[in-house]
Input
Amino acid sequence: MTDKKPQPKTLDDVRTLIHTIRGQRVMLDADLAVLYGVETRTLKQAVNRNIERFPEDFMFELSADELENWRSQIVISNPGAKMGLRHAPYAFTEQGVAMLSSVLRSKRAIEVNIAIMRAFVQMRHLGAQYKELAALVEKIDKRSIKNSGDIELIIKALREIMSPEAPTGKRRIGF
Output
């Protein structure tokens, strides 16, 4: 029996399953189990049988604080709810997800892995574009600060030119 979550249909659907935990982009075991069409416990058993293939930078178990933070991001009515979890979820990095296909060894695992890898690559490209955009905004901001000083000088000069000359107190003689 597989989990009752709906299957993601598009690359964007898969991207929504990628979370940032410990500063890394990861996917959780339950989400991966749905994608692979297996039960979460089956996926965990396969991982535990091949634990040497999953070093800390490939997969880690969420700490109690991380689990609580993750739960708080999901709208639930009961904050103490276990959400069907007996154990803390495993979080798989991009490399861990790639390793899963060799552990699960099914045609579906290979197909799903390809889709997931594409989603990770797309997220990496979006991150790079975001960094470029942030650098450009900062550059424009610095330029505008410099330009605002120049504009103030121009406005001051224009005001001086446009202001009527103050009378000197002497009356002009002649025509």
